[in-house]
Amino acid sequence: MVSPVLEVRGVSVAIERKPIVEGVSVTARAGEVLAIIGPNGSGKTTLMKALSGELEHLGGIALNGQPLRTLPPRAAATMRAVMPQASVLSFPFTVREVVRLGLSAGLGVLPAQREAVVEAALRRVDLAGFGGRMYQSLSGGEQQRVQLARVLCQVWQPVFEGLPRLLLLDEPVSSLDIKHQLLVMEIARGFAAAGGAVVAILHDLNLAALYADQVLVMSEGRRAACGAPAEVLDIALVREVFGCELATLQLSNGTPLFAPQVAMRLAAE
Amino acid sequence: MTAELAGPVAGDRTRLAQLTLVGLVLLLVAAAALALLTGASDASLPRLLSAYMAGATDDPLVLRDQLVFLDIRLPRLLLGILIGAGLAVSGVVMQGLFRNPLADPGLVGVSSGASLGAVVMIVLGGTALAPLTAILGIYNLQISAFVTGLVTTLILYQVATRGTQTQIATMLLAGIAIAALANAVMGVMVFLASDSQLRDFTFWSMGSLAGSNWQKVQASGPIILIAVLCCMLLTRGLNALTLGEVTAMHLGIPVQRLKRIAIVAVAAATGAAVAVSGGIGFIGIIVPHLLRLVIGPDHKYLLPASALLGAAFLLVADAVARTIVAPAELPIGIVTAAVGGPFFLWILLRRRELAW
Amino acid sequence: MRLPRFLLTLAALGGLAGPTLAAEITPFADPSRVAVIGGSLLEIVYALGEEGKVVARDTTGIFPPEAMALPDVGYMRALSPEGVLSVNPSALLVVDGSGPPEALDVLSKGSIPYVTVPEDFSHQGILTKVRAVGEALGVTDKAEALATTLDAELKAAEAATSAIPDAERKRVLFVISVQEGKIRAAGSGTAANGIITLAGGINPLAEMHGYQTLSDEALITANPDYVVMMQNSGAGDFSADLAANPALAASPALQQGRLLKVDGAFMLGFGPRTPKAILTLAHELYGDRVPQP
């Protein structure tokens, strides 16, 4: 359970010659969830774009040992699936048709199994019975879950032909209610538990603390800290990186819990 | 809406799409029969066939029937199928590429380029460009329109490509600029044109299949056919592009290659079609839109269905154009626009209701 | 413009050979069912009394009125082959400039002989057309007689107008259309220029070729005494637009309201009615100094 699925070595990304991410190194391993946290503008999404191949990068990114740059798009699509923050759909597909787009792209599946895989993915994201709805008629949160189902279809086996697969999730819970936030995090954990690897950008420190095996804290384009939540998420670092007051609790296993709202209100009074 | 989506599984329109394809094949066969059997003259296929049986092939009446079927209606039928299919499929590909149901092949500049080539040839073909006319022979207009259309598209593609990425939005804007430029040059040509040249250009821009013959089938047929077949291979890419270029890349689509193939195929198909038939509007918008309403936007079925319906639609429109004022003929562009204009308005009204 | 010799040879080979000249016209083997393309040719056929042989006309063939009963196979430059075939013609009489070339190509494949009659907007041009039509229809004697009559009539009309001294000749502007205030008028090489010259007028635009859109300065320089336009032309009645044009409003034509509306087929046809057309126009320009038509 320690083979590196995604190896990031000294990666820098510049947009219009302005450096946004500088010298970040991190490793995502099979069986683990890696959470990327950090304030707005700290380079989380830019780093994610480099990891998914959307942006050019300096340094090394390797997927299951293969340099990302040399990986043809088709092969990359079988190795990792990317869930975007938001998706617009330009033509009136049904929910089922959108989810199938994932199926036709990734690992592939026998025709006889297709509908079962699609159905399982829809059920997994709590959208059983939504297959016949038009995608555009759904709410933002529902659309986000359809995208997750599509992504789950793309790499529907967390380990395929002996190689672990990778899920890249860009703020996967941003427009979800509490129940579905937890559901999505459970799905991420389940994918890791089955032998895959997950990298997710999260804003909620508590979700990161509760669900991640490893947390990468970004600050001003650099890696501020990286490690297990209990080690990394100490109150001084978080206060420094995010620049705000926090109240903390500690669970019996050492996992920190943050109550920023409480602290802010108290400070204001 | 739910009734539309009924299938073995909710949201699965595969079966509906397959049935529609079968229906469209039958429709095309019927349209082809109509196109072959109707016309201004009273040529009769049974009479021709029985004459062949009897071996009476030198009867002048038989010779005339033979001319009508083999040299007039058959090449016209084939060109109608090719051009109708080519324009409709080009429409689907452009809409997929620009991610907009109202995009048409004109956006890659091929139409304005072809019009420019045509008008330059009509106006200057007899004077300044006479040497060129001499080399190109009686097809100087077609060749000039085709070449100018392709060259315009290539310029547009170059302008919109920075490094390795073609910016679709830049292409759209550059297309507007190039269309304006082409219009300006066309304005100069119209200014220089004689009265009969103006009439020639007007007739050309209204479109017609009246000049169909085997040479044109041989010249444009393979181009349109290959381009349409290339477009059929873009199914997966165009489907993925529905979610945006980035997601398409995540889904394993070589997006830049997809854009290049799509643009070249559309320019070739549209250029060849426009060169042979002049301006025939609306097929590239009406046909895909209508089919999306019925079978959904899955390109696996939308592309072949559009080819079939586009071909059938053009054959029927041409049959109307040929017979409604017989023995004279209406430009086919008038017929397609007469149907397309109101339909287009209806699309716009509908879109406003659906708000997307 | 001088062209290299080999290009001229190519032009001759490339289907661009000029129209069949009158001298080369071979009579139709079967002139019993002729489709006539070109309004002036149709008038000539009627003037020859050979209308019994005509089975179809094109959109420009509108005179004499009884010809309107014939089936119309479309505009002369946009013919449809099957439309022409549908009237089952034994031969085609076609004025130069008809097309498209593909249509004529298919028809010639159908072993329907066709003769292209050259068009020239002049005295000789009319006589050439008459002789060509007569030759094609196998009525050379009748055609020669008609040509002789027309020749005499044309000479008489020309004699009447040539008596006008150069200094008193009127400047005549022929306006074909007005679009968004822009005036399009006839230069040299047009039927309008031909008839103006024959009627003893001066076309102020004779240095331009074909129909041209005019700038205001060109209009001021043209300074016409008369403006001629077609009635029932496709462009509609644009006399109000002419009056609204400041460059033209100052001309004698507009100052004195000398706007002439003429029947296009009659005035510009260059056929049997042209002698009468010359006199009609000349009478408008010069009054009784020219005999009544």
Your description of this structure?
The complex is a heterotrimer of chains A (269), B (356) and C (293). In chain A, the strands form 4 sheets. Chain A has a 6-stranded mixed sheet with strand order 6-9-10-3-11-12, sandwiched between helices. In chain A, strands 2-1-4-5 form a 4-stranded antiparallel sheet, with helices on one face. In chain A, strand 13 (248-250) and strand 14 (256-258) form a beta hairpin. The radius of gyration of chain A is 19 Å and the shape is globular. Chain A has helices spanning 44-52, 73-79, 95-105, 111-124, 140-154, 178-193, 205-211, 229-232, 235-242, 260-268; strands spanning 4-15, 18-29, 33-37, 58-63, 66-67, 80-83, 159-160, 163-164, 166-169, 197-201, 214-219, 222-227, 248-250, 256-258. Chain A is 37% helix and 27% strand. Chain B is mostly helical and 356 residues long. The longest helix of chain B has 39 residues, at 60-98. Chain B is globular. Chain C has helices at 5-13, 39-47, 81-86, 101-109, 123-137, 140-162, 191-198, 216-222, 239-244, 246-249, 252-255, 264-268, 274-286; strands spanning 34-37, 54-57, 91-95, 114-117, 172-179, 182-186, 211-214, 226-231, 259-263. The longest helix of chain C is centred in the middle third of the chain and has 23 residues, at 140-162. In chain C, helix 4 (101-109) links the parallel strand 3 and strand 4 (114-117). Chain C has 2 domains: 18-156, Rossmann fold, CATH 3.40.50.1980; 166-289, Rossmann fold (3-Layer(aba) Sandwich), CATH 3.40.50. The chains are: A alpha/beta (269), B mainly alpha (356), C alpha/beta (293). The B-C interface holds B 39-43, 60, 63-64, 67-68, 71-73, 127, 130-131, 133-138, 191, 194-196, 199-200, 203, 208, 210-213, 216, 322, 325-329, 331 and C 1, 3-4, 7-8, 10-11, 14-16, 56, 59, 71-75, 77-88, 97, 100-103, 105-106, 109-111, 176, 190, 210-211, 213.
